[in-house]
Amino acid sequence: MLNKVKLFNRLDKNFKRLLIRELLAGLLQHRKKSPRDADSIAACRDWFLNAAEQTAAEGLPALFSLTSGYTAAYPETTGYIVPTLYRYAKVYDDNAVRKVAKSCAQWLVAIQKQEGSIEAGYVGMNLPGCIFNTGMALFGYLAAYSEERDSQYMDAARRAALWLVESMDEDGCWRKNLSQFAAPTSFHTYNVRVAWALSKYAGVSKDDQTISAVKRHLNWAVTQANAEGFFSGCEMAGFDQPLTHTIAYTLRGLLESGISVGEESAIDTAMRGIRSLQQRQRPNGGYSGLFDQNWQERATWDCLTGSAQVTILMFRAWQRTQQRTFLMAFNKGIEWLKSNQIIAPHIPEVHGGLLGSFPIYGGYHPYSIPNWAVKFLLDALLLRQTIAQSPEKIL
User: 237 pLDDT band (50/70/90 cuts)?
Assistant: First the structure.
């Protein structure tokens, strides 16, 4: 407790007020009224632009901590944030955001290792390349190529894809070149999100070897699911049960890859998991931060990143089934997420941010704003714009 008091005393007065507000919200289990979608989207934009200034847009800081500030640039999430920034820039014709997206993509090309991989951890740690980070960078290369039509991005994508395919075992599982920061298991099922990136590359390159590798991985991945769509191998280091964050990585990767290469078993297995999550949405619109193999809640706190990802899954499930329950879960989830978004224009480091956990002291990146939380919130908001009906009618 004494250390926490000392920490609080070192905070800027604006951060102290914010921290007190968030602590009270956690204790009272009460959130403010959510902002309008347009205001929330604009605040996400502001957060990303401010974060990019910290690195001159050479990658994006992994997170902003209320206690220690910005981290170094993070290749993994920068990779999959690039498509989000390009998407936003196209919708809003925003040259400032487009410039950041392009700069981040150029940075991803610059840091790619000779064999095609992307290092684990933060930039500058000089670690070996790993499967997940390379797959996430592949999303960025493909988005940049689609927007810029510059061959350097397609070349980087080709090298990354080849390294990923060559790293895969015959049965379709990735067991080598895993990140040392992940759970110390022999495989990580959430690497199916990497298969999604490969399926997108295959859609552009028409490379039969890549398509075959994706199908091989999907055939392996479905064997890790139980009857309710819960997957083994989704744990992250530091947690004894899978986070909603990595569960959603797995389900989204399986669903999108399955759609891309026409693997119905992958789609059906993903939908089982999505239905299980929909049935466990909390009254406030969020989800438990941790689940066990029986889909029992194992955390009182909400991993807001995971809740944002699951909210997107509800939208994708609605698109496939047109079942109203998924659409209701999607909109309820967005309202919960927006109510947790920090709207504080006078504090640019946090304005537009989404905390790692609710309450702020929860188990996933406490007292911090991960850049990927803001990314998934913005993705969900941009998806809602594609719905012709007004949110009021849908809700």
Answer: confident
Rounded Cα distance, 384 and 81, in Å: 18
**According to the model, what pLDDT value does residue 390 have?**
45
For the chain, report the end-to-end CA distance as a whole number of angstroms. Answer: 43
Q: Which two tokens stand for residue 7?
A: 């920490």
Q: What is the mean pLDDT of the chain?
A: 92
3-state secondary structure of 121: coil
pLDDT tens column, 12-45:
666 767 766 766 666 556 666 789 999 999 999 9
Q: What is the full DSSP assignment across 190-249? A: GGHHHHHHHHHHHHHH--HHHHHHHHHHHHHHGGGB-TTS-BSS---TT-SS-BHHHHHH
Give the integer Cα–Cα distance in Å for 328 and 315.
9
Mean pLDDT of 271-280: 98
Sorting pLDDT into bands at 50, 70 and 90, what band is 180? confident
DSSP annotation of 291 reads B
Yes or no: say if 253 and 227 are a contact pair by the CB < 8 Å rule. no
Name residue, tokens 């309450």: 359
Measured distance CA(201)–CA(153) in Å, rounded: 11
What does 14-79 look like in DSSP terms, one character per residue?
HHHHHHHHHHHHHHHT--PPPPPHHHHHHHHHHHHHHHHHHHTTSS-BSEEETTTEE--B-HHHHH
Residues 6 or more apart whose Cβ sits within 8 Å of residue 288: 244, 280, 282, 297, 298, 299, 300, 302
Contact 340, 31 (CB under 8 A): yes
d(CA 221, CA 216) in angstroms, rounded, equals: 9
Q: Strand 129-130 to strand 302-303: parallel, antiparallel, or no bridges (unpaired)?
A: unpaired
**Three-state secondary-structure class, residue 298:** coil
pLDDT exceeds 90 at position 48:
yes
For 6, list phi and psi in degrees, rounded to 5.
-60, -40
User: Which residues have C-beta within 8 Å of that of residue 181, sequence separation ≥ 6?
Assistant: 120, 121, 237
> What is the average per-residue pLDDT within 91-120?
98
Residue that is written with structure tokens 């026409």 in the block: 262
Question: What is the distance between the alpha carbons of residues 352 and 374, in angstroms, rounded to a whole number?
Answer: 8
386 CB neighbour count, 10 Å cutoff: 9
